[in-house]
Design brief:
The protein is mainly α. It has one domain. Helix content is 78%, strand content 0%. The chain is built from eight helices and no strands. The longest helix is centred in the C-terminal third of the chain and has 26 residues.
C-alpha cells in the first residue's frame, strides 16, 4: 500500500496519454504529414540543411516537448539524404533543446512540480539560464557534428 501511495498518478497518466496521442498521430500518418511539411523547408546546401534542421528541432522540442517531437520527427528523418547525420542532430539537438524552457523536457516539468512551494521554478527564471546555455551548446554541437560529417 505504501508503494502505491508514492506513485505520481498524474505523471503516469500524463505519460500514458502522451504516448497514446503520439501513437495515434503516427498510425494515422498525420505525424509524417506534419513533420514532412516542416522538413520541406530544409533545402539548399548541406550546411543550410543542418542549421535549418537544428532550428526546427529546437523549436519543435519546445512546442511539443522533446520526446514527442522526436517520436514525430523520426519518420521524416528516415527518408532524408544524409540520414545518419540528421539522426545524430535529432538526438543531440532535441536533448539540449529540452533545456531551453521549462516545457522543453518532461524532466524539467517534474522538477518544477517536485520543487513545489520550497522553490518556485518559474518559466522566465528558468529560461534566463536555460535559453543561453541551450543555444550556446546547440551552436557548438551542431558545428562539431557538421564538421565530422
Amino acid at each position: 500500500s505504501s508503494l502505491l501511495a508514492r506513485i505520481d498518478w498524474s505523471l503516469l497518466l500524463f505519460f500514458s496519454a502522451l504516448f497514446v496521442v503520439i501513437g495515434g498521430l503516427q498510425t494515422s500518418g498525420l505525424s509524417y504529414l506534419l513533420t514532412s511539411k516542416s522538413l520541406e523547408l530544409i533545402s539548399g546546401t548541406l550546411s543550410e540543411q543542418v542549421w535549418m534542421f537544428s532550428g526546427i528541432t529546437l523549436v519543435g522540442s519546445n512546442l511539443l516537448s522533446n520526446v514527442p517531437f522526436v517520436l514525430l520527427a523520426s519518420s521524416s528523418v528516415r527518408a532524408m539524404e544524409n540520414s545518419e547525420l540528421f539522426w545524430y542532430l535529432l538526438a543531440f539537438v532535441s536533448t539540449i533543446a529540452g533545456n531551453l524552457t521549462i516545457f522543453g523536457s518532461v524532466a524539467n516539468m517534474i522538477v518544477a512540480e517536485g520543487a513545489g512551494d520550497k522553490c518556485k521554478v518559474g518559466f522566465w527564471a528558468f529560461a534566463k539560464f536555460g535559453a543561453v546555455s541551450a543555444i550556446l551548446c546547440i551552436l557548438a554541437g551542431t558545428a562539431i557534428l557538421f564538421a565530422a560529417a
